[in-house]
Amino acid sequence: MTTGAITPRLFTLAYPLVLGNLLQTFYNLADMFWVGRVNDTAVAAVSLMFPLSWMFVSTAMGITAATIALVSQHVGAGNDRRADHVVAQTTLLALAVSVVLAAVGFAVRHDLLTLMGARDQVFVEALAYIEVVFFTIPLTFLFFAFRSSLQGAGDTKTAMWLMIVSAGFNVVFDPFLILGWGPFPELGTQGAAVATLVARFIAAAGGIYVLLRGGFGVQLRVRDLRPHPEILKKLVGIGYPATIDGWARSFAAVAMASLVARFSVAAIAAYGIGVRMMSVSWSVAGAVGQATATGVGQNLGAETPDRAVEVTWKATAGTMGVLFAAAAIVVAFPAAAMGIFISEQAVIDEGIRFLRIIAPSWAFFGGVMVIQGAFRGAGVTKVAMVLSFLSRWIFRIPLAVVLAFAWVVTIPGTTTSIAALDMGVRGLWIAYATAAVLSFAVAVGWFTLGTWKGGVVEKPADRTPGD
After folding, report:
1. 8 Å CB contact between 149 and 10
2. Is residue 308 a contact partner of residue 295, using CB atoms and an 8 Å limit?
3. Quick check: 112 pLDDT over 60?
4. Is residue 455 included in any domain, yes or no?
5. pLDDT at residue 74 tops 70
6. HSE-CB for 344 with a 13 A CA cutoff
7. Alpha-carbon gap, residue 99 to 95, rounded angstroms
């Protein structure tokens, strides 16, 4: 990414990430498709758990965001052996954090579901699903440690092939485990989780094997697994804002799901299906953002910051163009899109409203994700974190509360009152879309300031700018 025409190199780096993320999204959609063949309660349960599952993925992505920045900048600066040390310490950190998170989550699973608003049969179905999902957390973290390590070195294809195998297994076995085809018992929502568990194991085991084998730009060496305080400190120092960023996004999704749960089962199911479809846009934008992080990191390591800027703007423009086109199709045929997943008319009707309001904002949301990737590649993960907080906790959630619910607040010391608009669940959808546009405007302005161009690794003393 440090020489040659930017657009074809960016495409070569990004398309395996896009395909890998789309495969991840595809088997999430496959889960929803087959769970939808059980009943709307099962759909509501999995829908309610999607933000929580995404929280685990976001945490893994946050921890390994520092890996992309450090490995890419070391590779760009010619420090290959230091990049290997970062890979080993990332693996160690990911394993330790994931085991603790899985244990704590499993211990408080009942209280967690209650807090999220799960009730009656939805609670039962969600519990069966999430109990298995907790065991997938260490596998998820190990896969992301592998993927971020190779991505920093410029190899995005190997992870894509592993995702193809993993997603293929999940898609094939979903109906057998969910609906009880053939000799398998009918496990319902738990079957979807079991299929995911095995698929994650395949991806994680394959990833660790590739890292140990080497020959892909970086290598995991067993002797490097001894804790290295300096590298761990840097991983945590750069990575913790990205982790908080992931949690901010995930908890905001949980909060949003909890607000939706105040309405009807149809609204919950429509939201779950709509968010799964929207996750396609996240997959594209997130993948391009990851490619942008690699491009920015390698160019900062090579001391060519102007090229890093060009990488970012081209990636942002391309992503937004694709997402505008995708949104146009969904807005034109919303009933057909919802009908793929469920046949209940009440859910389809609410899903149509959801898609028509939110789909046009996908491009702005995607643009923010690409610019956040640029900040992460530069190692300036705190800015990416702040952008997530602005988008979700400053813009989206407060707007959702104001627009969707009925309440009146009197300003102390005056007779002036502020009343909410009480738009119902439609207010939640409008808040979602508005927040995306506002956060994109902030992200563009912040990136333009150029305060991120310093990098986070030391350059060899004999390097000259542009060498």
Report:
1. no
2. yes
3. yes
4. no
5. yes
6. 19
7. 6
The total domain count for the chain is: 1
Instruction: Read off the pLDDT of residues 271-300 as tens digits, 9 standing for 90 and up.
Output: 888 887 887 788 889 889 988 988 998 888
Cα–Cα dist 35/56, whole Å:
21
> Per the domain annotation, does 74 fall within a domain?
yes
Tell me if residue 457 falls in helix, strand or coil: coil
Go through 50-70 and write b for each residue having 16 or more CB atoms within 10 A of its CB, e for each that does not. Answer: bbbbbbbbbbbbbbbbbbbbb
Cα 464 from chain centre: 37
**Does residue 142 or residue 415 have the better pLDDT?**
142
State the residue range of the domain holding 112: 6-448
Q: What are the CA-CA distances from residue 377 to residues 140, 172, 239, 320, 371 (Å)?
A: 22, 36, 11, 20, 10
What CA dihedral angle connects 279, 281, 282 and 283, to 10 degrees?
90
- Predicted TM-score (pTM) of the model is 0.71
Burial of 418 (0-12, 13-18, 19+ CB in 10 A): exposed
338 belongs to a structural domain: yes
CA 459 to chain centroid, in Å, comes to 31
Q: Answer whether residue 82 is part of any domain.
A: yes
Residue 43: Cβ within 10 Å count: 27
Closest by Cα among 194, 189, 222 to 208? 222
Q: Rounded to whole angstroms, how far apart are CA atoms 197 and 194?
A: 5
Both tokens assigned to 299: 């160019």
**Which is nearest to 391 in space by CA: 450, 322, 437, 338?**
437
Burial 359-385 (b: 16+ CB within 10 A, else e): bbbbbbbbbbbbbbbbbbbbbbbebbb
Q: Which residue has the higher pLDDT, 22 or 82?
A: 82
